[in-house]
TrEMBL record:
Protein name per UniProt: Chaperone protein HtpG
Phylogenetic placement of the source organism: Bacteria, Pseudomonadati, Bacteroidota, Cytophagia, Cytophagales
Family: Belongs to the heat shock protein 90 family.
Keyword ATP-binding attached: yes
Protein origin, superkingdom: Bacteria
Residues where ATP binds: E32, N36, D77, M82, S97, G98, T169, R316
NCBIfam families membership: PRK05218.1 (NF003555)
Assigned keywords, A-Z: ATP-binding, Chaperone, Cytoplasm, Nucleotide-binding, Stress response
C-alpha cells in the first residue's frame, strides 16, 4: 500500500497560523498528545470490557522517549490504534476543521493569549515544536494492517504500510530547531509533572512511572483515611505544613465534579501563598486559574477540582455566564459552609483552636457572598482580648447588661492593637466592660458590615472616647482645670501629637486613672483603617 493525498483544510496552510496563535505556551503540545494516548488506552480497555477485544489490557502503558541523535521525541501508547481509514478521517480532516474553526472564531477578538492552554488543538499542536510528525499505528481490529502517516507541516501527507506488530500508536516528533529544549530530560519531566501527574494510565519516562493513576479525588470518601488526605496534600504541595481539614467534593448531577479542597494553616499572609487550587478535566491538568469557577474568598484554599463540565475552550466572559460554572460556584460555597458548620457543632474547642487560620476565609466570605453570610453568621466567632470566643448571637447577650446605651444599642467595644491600646483596655475592664479584639486584615470592613446587618449593635473603639462616655450613659467627669487651662493643654498636646491624616482630640482630665486621655473619634478611626487597606496607602 502506498498512497499520497492532500489534507483537506479551508485555509491555505494552517500551520503558520497554529504556530502564531499558540506561541505563548508551547509546552501544551505534550499534554495534548499524552491526553490522546490516554484516551486511546481507555478506549481499548472499554472495548475489552465489552468483549470486542480479547488481548491483555491490565498493564497498558504510555511511554515517552527522547532520541538526542535523531532529535526526536516519541509518545507511544498501547491503545486502540488507527486503521488507514481512521487516520484519513480523524487526522486529515477532523482536527483541521477544529483548528480552522478555532482560528476563524477568535482571530478578531484579540483574546488568543488567554485562550491558549484552554483550547486544545489536539494532535496538531505537535507542529508547534516539530517540523515533521510521524504516526505509526496498528489498530486493535482483527487483521488490521499497521500504517505510517507522515506530514512535514505543509498540507501534504503521506500514508504507507508500516511494520508494527503490537496494537497501539507511536507519535514521533522531529523537533524543529527552536524546540530542541524538548530533548532535555528535565524539561520533559517538568512538563509531565505539571500536566500529567494524575493521569489514569501509567506514563513511563526515563525508566520510571511519573504519575499517580489513582489520585484520591476520584475515590469514594468512604475508602479514604485521614492519612490518605494528608499524603495527597504533600504530593500537591511538598513543602507546606499539614492542612487543617478538607472537603471532598463529589457530585454527578446536575454537573459532574470531583475534588478535594484543603483549608491551609495560615502561616503567612495568604495572598502570597503559591499553593493554588488546580483545575483538572478528567485528571488532565488544565490550569491554576480558577477565577470565576471558585468564589474569590475560596481561592485562598488549596487542592484540586476536576470537572469535565467546565468549558475550557471559551473566553472568560463566557465562562462567567455559563450556567454550570455558576452552579459549581454555588455548590462549592455551600459545601464549605456546611463543613465549617459541622466542625463548629461537632467540636467547638477544636474549632476555636483553628479559628486564627479560618477567620480570614470566613470573614472574607461573609463580606462578599450574601449566601455565605447567612450560613456563616452561625459559626463566625468574636475573640475577646482575653482570648475567649463567642458567636454573633452569644456575644451581645453577654455584654447587654452593662453595655447598652440610652437608645438601647448594645455597644461592642473593640481594640485593634492590644499593646498600644492597653491603657484604654484596662480602663474598660476596670469598669467591667468587655473588649473584643478586631485586629485582622478585614476587620474594619467586617465590623461595618455587621453594624449594617445586625440591629441594635454598635461598634466602638476603646479609644474613641473617654471610657466613661463610650457607653454613652455616664457623664464625663468634670475637669479639674478651668477652660483656659484646658485649651492650653489641648494646644500643647496637639502640637506634640501630629499626624497627617488623623484629627486628634485631646480631652483633659477625662478619667480617674489618667490625667489626660487622647481619643480618636470612631469615624476618623474607620477612615484611617480604610485608607490602610488601599494598595498605595502611605
Ligand atoms: P481530539 O482529541 O480533540 O478529538 P485530536 O486532533 O487530538 O482531536 O485527535 C483527533 C482524533 O485522532 C482523535 O479523536 C482520535 O480519534 C485520533 N487519535 C489521536 N491520537 C490518537 C492515538 N494516540 N491513538 C488513537 N487515536 C488517536
Amino acid at each position: 500500500m502506498q498512497e499520497k493525498g492532500t489534507i483537506s483544510v479551508h485555509s491555505e496552510n494552517i500551520f503558520p497560523i497554529i504556530k502564531k496563535f499558540l506561541y505563548s505556551d508551547h509546552d501544551v503540545f505534550l499534554r495534548e498528545l499524552v491526553a490522546n494516548a490516554v484516551d486511546a488506552t481507555q478506549k481499548l480497555k472499554q472495548l475489552a470490557s465489552l468483549g470486542e477485544y480479547d488481548g491483555e489490557v491490565s498493564k497498558l502503558r504510555i511511554q515517552i522517549t527522547i532520541n538526542e541523535k535523531l532529535k526526536t521525541l516519541t509518545i507511544s501508547d498501547q491503545g486502540l490504534g488507527m486503521t488507514a481509514e481512521e487516520i484519513k478521517e480523524y487526522i486529515n480532516q477532523v482536527a483541521f476543521s477544529g483548528a480552522t474553526a478555532f482560528v476563524e472564531k477568535y482571530k478578531d477578538k484579540g483574546q488568543q493569549q488567554q485562550l491558549i492552554g484552554f483550547f486544545g488543538l489536539g494532535f496538531y499542536s505537535a507542529f508547534m515544536v516539530a517540523d515533521r510528525v510521524d504516526i505509526i499505528t496498528k489498530s486493535y481490529q482483527k487483521d488490521a494492517e499497521s500504517v505510517h502517516w507522515t506530514c512535514d507541516g505543509s498540507t501534504a501527507f503521506e500514508l504507507r504500510k508500516a511494520v508494527k506488530k503490537e496494537v497501539g500508536t507511536d507519535i514521533v516528533l522531529h523537533l524543529n530547531a527552536d524546540s530542541e529544549e524538548f530533548l532535555q530530560k528535565h524539561k520533559i519531566k517538568e512538563i509531565l509533572n505539571r500536566y500529567c501527574k494524575f493521569l489514569p494510565v501509567e506514563i513511563e519516562f526515563d525508566g520510571e512511572v511519573i504519575n499517580n493513576t489513582q489520585p484520591i479525588w476520584i475515590k469514594s470518601p468512604s475508602e479514604l483515611k485521614e492519612e490518605d488526605y494528608l499524603k495527597f496534600y504533600k504530593e500537591l504541595y511538598p513543602f507546606s505544613p499539614d492542612p487543617l481539614f478538607w472537603i471532598h467534593l463529589n457530585v454527578d448531577y446536575p454537573f459532574n465534579l470531583t475534588g478535594v479542597l484543603y483549608f491551609p494553616q495560615v502561616t503567612q499572609k495568604l495572598e502570597h501563598s503559591s499553593n493554588k487550587i488546580q483545575l483538572y478535566a478528567k485528571q488532565v491538568f488544565i490550569t491554576e486559574e480558577v477565577k470565576d469557577i471558585v468564589p474569590p474568598f475560596l481561592m485562598l484554599l488549596h487542592g484540586v477540582i476536576d470537572s469535565p463540565d467546565i468549558p475550557l475552550n471559551v473566553s472568560r466572559s463566557y465562562l462567567q455566564a455559563d450556567s454550570n460554572v455558576k452552579k459549581i460556584n454555588t455548590y462549592i460555597t455551600k459545601k464549605v459552609a456546611d463543613k465549617l458548620d459541622e466542625l463548629f457543632k461537632k467540636d467547638r474547642k477544636s474549632y476555636e483552636e483553628k479559628w486564627p487560620s479560618i477567620e480570614l476565609f470566613v470573614k472574607y466570605g461573609m463580606l462578599t457572598e450574601d449566601k455565605f453570610y447567612e450560613k456563616a453568621k452561625d459559626f463566625v466567632l468574636f475573640k475577646t482580648v482575653d482570648s475567649e470566643y463567642f458567636t454573633l448571637s452569644e456575644y451581645p447577650e453577654r455584654v447587654k447588661e452593662k453595655q447598652t446605651d440610652s437608645e438601647q444599642h448594645t455597644i461592642i467595644l473593640y481594640a485593634n492593637n492590644v499593646d498600644k491600646q492597653d491603657l484604654y483596655i484596662q480602663a474598660c475592664k476596670r469598669r467591667g466592660f468587655d473588649v473584643l479584639l478586631f485586629d485582622g486584615q478585614l476587620d474594619s470592613h467586617f465590623l461595618e458590615t455587621l453594624e449594617r446587618k445586625l440591629d441594635k449593635v454598635r461598634f466602638k473603639s476603646v479609644d474613641a472616647e473617654p471610657v466613661d462616655k463610650l457607653i454613652g450613659k455616664s457623664e464625663q467627669q468634670a475637669s479639674l482645670l478651668d477652660e483656659k487651662e484646658q485649651n492650653k493643654l489641648q494646644d500643647i498636646y496637639k502640637q506634640a501629637i501630629r499626624d497627617a491624616t488623623v484629627v486628634w482630640s485631646v480631652v483633659p482630665m477625662a478619667s480617674d486613672e489618667l490625667p489626660v486621655v487622647i481619643t480618636v473619634p470612631e469615624f476618623v478611626k474607620r477612615l484611617h483603617a480604610m485608607a490602610q487597606l488601599q494598595p498605595n496607602a502611605g
